[in-house]
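Problem 3 from the worked examples.
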Amino acid sequence: MALFNYASREITLKVVYYGPGLSGKTTNLQWLHEHLDEARRSKLLSLATETDRTLFFDFLPMDLGNIGGFKVKFQLYTVPGQVRYDATRKLVLKGADAVVFVADSQRAMRDSNIVSFENMKENLAANNLDYKTILFVLQYNKRDLPDIMPVEEMDADLNERKVEVIESSAVNGQGVRETFDAVTKLLVQEANRRQKMYEQGQVSASRALNTKVGTARMGVKSGKGGEAETSAGQQNLGTALWNDLKPSGAEKAAPSKLPPPPSFTASPDGIPELVDQLTRLIEERRKTEDEILSVLQDIRDRLA
């Protein structure tokens, strides 16, 4: 889900490039990293395995405006394409706001595309993400090679949702920026839609925040119930955010490094304190995820 940094006033939206091995996911991220503004992107980090890699970096564009007073930052990831790294693919997909599926257009890769696509659906479900509603773009890569499938044939296999398709040759940079622009446009449109619904009173602050792309606003509008309704809304907001951040499932078995649920005064005066506590909570969660990635990298270095 979208991450909010109240100190820097940024929303971080996570985009995952998925697809079979050697379909061009890594090439996409490498090209983007090389051609995006150096001053607005982080280093390209890699978790290398014997035959595959997971890449990721952050990018903060300056031409997208803001949402509810927050700047928008994108976090781009690839997943390893090999079946043997399915646990890593599932981990990388966690919390994704949008997915780009990179399919190999070569006819010989048809079965691999389908297997990877079905695996993506399974891993989305395992992360409580709905394939039918998650923001999604298809990239048909390697269109410069011989013996490729026509777009109509690939659509029959992969495009049951009738999402936008970008034809590409990532090794030449063709279609790479167009794919990135397509998915970021979807993300910003959805965030703005949620923001507008909140401002029009169609959804509460807690419901708007408890979505894959939520509003950046922390305020709670009072309704007919006056102060009592406002206080209840603040409590629901804190509960919703805590439930999104706390460990679940297998994570509960191990000692958690996360602090206990934040407590705050259920009144308008308590909002600044709530924001501070939730900011610290999110930062602690990020530190924990960084430690997990560091351990994974160390394990792979030992296996190499």
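Problem 4, a separate protein:
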Amino acid sequence: MSKARVYLALLHYPVYNKKMDIVNTSVTNLDIHDIARSSATYGLEGYYIVQPLKPQRLMVERIIAYWNSGQGYQYNPDRQKAFEKVKVCDNFDTLVKEVEVLEGVRPQLVVTDARIYPNTVSYNHMRRLLSADGVYILLFGTGWGIVKETMEKADWILEPIYGPGSYNHLSVRSAVAIILDRLCGEKWC
């Protein structure tokens, strides 16, 4: 559906914990796998895991290598298709610069959050933007959300995902799947 070139990034720092302290969260294997599969399913240009801690980055790189060329590739070549565009980088600025070099233009930043901000837009609005040419990074946070300073750098902030009840704390991999379907999936409603 999308004509735009869309990248996804999962930010592990700087994010908030439940006390609103700024922290670095740990990478989880399920997030690597499930978000890679969602990114491939919806035809994204790449999936970046932003993690400043070197031991965490090395772990991610080993997992990527396992599925791209190791025993994982031999066991399940289909998984390699999901992992071929997964990369890890050490910070948000590096991610933006890398995409800018790849694409030749500064990418527009689309951030997600469970809170409303002044520049919050609907999924329908963002879907219309993605139907035209352009380069975008969809930035998802871990923990209890992306820090205010990063949110303020966003060109667009997507509205929260609401269920029928008051509970609102999806896993990031669930939120990614829902949002990618709303923005890049088949139009069904």
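Solution to problem 4. The chain has a mean pLDDT of 93. The first strand starts at residue 5 and ends at 11.
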